[in-house]
Design brief:
Layout (H helix, E strand, L loop, with lengths): L1 H8 L3 H17 L13 H14 L2 H11 L18 H6 L1 E5 L3 H4 L9 E5 H14 L5 H8 L3
Antiparallel strand pairs: 1-2
The structure holds zinc ion (ZN) (2 copies).
One zinc ion (ZN) binds next to strand 2 and helix 7.
Amino acid sequence: MDRRIWEEFGERPDEVHQLAAAIKKAIAVAGEFVLPNVDQEMPEVRLLTALHIRRERNSKVRKMLLDDRRPKGLRCEICALSRPELDLSLQESLFEAHHLVPLAEVGERKTRLTDLALLCACCHRLVHGAMVLKSGWVGIAEARALVMPG
Ligand SMILES: [Zn+2]
Ligand SMILES: [Zn+2]
């Protein structure tokens, strides 16, 4: 789908801008996630960020990841935050699914467990904020270096 969108909108930044705004609004209305300073971004980056986050909010993807990590204990894969003393449902509310592969690279294929990292909401915000800042992809190792320098 992302490739299709690029073909369709690559030459029309104004429409990309509008579309991204609509996606952003839809996400904001759903009250799910505050996009990191997206107004600073290039329209293309903004669109991809919006699509990325929309895909991450897919409840099946999140459930798949939580099901996998639960037996080992829920822990942020960047800062190592974990709160095992809390009720499981409260623990789960701290964490979000983050895609490790840019959407433009994976295209239509179904999300696999190996595509995902479990991040606390704070680190997840930081990763996407860093992507906005550099207008490019930020991997887990790079994000970890930001959170825990040295
Ligand atoms: Zn974290
Ligand atoms: Zn993410």
